[in-house]
Amino acid sequence: MTQSMIDVLVVGAGPYGLSVAAHAQALGLRTRIIGTPMHFWDNRMPVGMFLKSEPFASSLGSPHPGRSFLDRHSEWDTMGRPIPLDMFTSYGRWFAEHLAPGPEETLVTNVAQDEGGYRVTLATEEVVRARTVVVAIGVGAFAHTPDVVSHLSPRALTHASEHRDLGVFADRDVIVVGAGQSAIETAVLLADAGARPRLVARTPRLAWNAPPRQSSSRLDTLLRGPHSGLGRGWRTWVWSEAPQVTRLLPQGARLELVRTTLGPAGSWWLRDRMDERVTVNLHQHLSGATEADGKVMVSTLGPNGPQIHSADHVIAATGYRPQLDRVTVLSPDLRQRLRRVAGSPRLDANFQASVPGLYFTGLSAAASFGPVMRFVHGADFCARRVARHIALHAGTRDTAVPKPVTV
Question: What's the predicted TM-score (pTM) here?
Answer without folding.
Answer: 0.92
